[in-house]
Amino acid sequence: MATSAPKTRPVWTPPPGGNTALKYGRESTLIGDLRTAVSAYFDETGHARDGGWRMIAKSAVILTWTATSYFLLLFWAETWWQSVALAISLALALAGIGFCIQHDGGHGAYSSNPALNRLAAFTLDLMGGSSYMWDQKHNVLHHTYPNVLHADDDITQAPWLRLSESDPLLPAHRHQWWYSWLLYAIIPPKWIFVDDFNRLKTERAAARRVPRPKGRALVTLFVGKALAMIWILILPFAVHGLSLGVLGIYLLVAWVWGAALATTFQLAHCNDAAEFTPWPAVGEPMGHAWAEQQLATTVNFSADSAVVTWYVGGLNYQIEHHLFPRVCHLHYPAISGIVRKVCAEHGVEYRTHGTMLDAVRSHVAHLKRVGGHAAA
């Protein structure tokens, strides 16, 4: 079972001339008014902030979808088109687990029961990731310092991609606006077999020291990797033999899985509507207060689509998620109007793309700009 990461003091390695400690500017009344308004919503409706029975039901649907796709692919598919269709179905289902179950569990928003939150978070270990490393990388770094250059590990993908102007510009980055979609195929295997072990070895993610997991957290990491190896590679090879066909199906699953994950998360932060914040100079705080930073660097998309909202676990309401990460995603559509109203009263921009296509276009434009395409 996954355990929560120990509370450790960040150790920073700032860029030249940068402050040794990242501190936000003086807090405004915005965050207090947001919390008061959202709390009033829950008090008036009587809803709990977690997902309750609805999350259990949704999880059952997604897990059944995953298990059915996997077993049909492993034991039933006989033709290439059956294998391809089931591989795509499995990949989308795996991404759905990450969006809807693991993500809420990792934030403690899945349930009011801590054990259920840990169980939901553990689904990442079963898929080959590490709930411990994810907590350090996502909760501690990304949510605390979204789009802060050198601090947010999610925007550090060098040398493969240049997602921010803090990374070195290479000639190949001029073409990243199209080849990035091909690179998404390596995200799951890289995450499973390389990234977590690299962080375990170096004890670093971006500019922060990541303490090595100990005890049950360390056991969970290795047990999860071993179980993932069994269902991802060992069982398929045992049933169908060592063949290029099996390897090809795995690569297809990895590509669709990685593309679904990367596209959803990138659309919210890596686009031309989101701000990127430089690491402050010595003795200076960051330009925004915490809540203003979340709103400046985060963009919603496709909020009117019930299908998109259901599948991506409310991550198209990324603003609400960043402001209230311990609220279950099932509540995001309801509180979005409240958040938008309070932001308008404070004169703070609430950024959103109307459709997913609009968000994709903005993401591509961002990749072109930081990749040097427009200037070439």
Structure overview:
This protein starts with 29 loop residues before the first helix and ends in a 6-residue tail after the last helix. The protein is globular. The chain has one domain. The strands form two sheets. Strands 1-2 form a two-stranded antiparallel sheet. α2 runs antiparallel to α3 and α3 packs antiparallel against α4. With 376 residues, the protein is mainly alpha-helical.
If you average the pLDDT, what whole number results? 90
Portion of residues within helices:
55-70%
Principal-axes geometry comes out as globular
The main β sheet shows up as:
2 strands, antiparallel
- Per DSSP, the total helix count is 14
Task: Please tell me the total number of domains.
Answer: 1
From the N-terminal CA to the C-terminal CA, the straight-line distance is: 51 Å
- H/E topology pattern: HHHHHHHEEHHHEHHHEH
Low-confidence stretches: 1-9
Furnish the topology, listing elements before pairings.
Layout: H1 30-45, H2 52-75, H3 80-106, H4 114-126, H5 131-142, H6 176-183, H7 187-202, E1 204-205, E2 208-209, H8 216-240, H9 244-269, H10 290-297, E3 300-301, H11 306-311, H12 318-323, H13 332-346, E4 352-353, H14 356-370
Parallel strand pairs: 3-4
Antiparallel strand pairs: 1-2
Tags for this entry?
376 residues, mainly alpha, globular, disordered N terminus
Gist?
This protein is mainly α and 376 residues long. The protein is built from 14 helices and four strands.
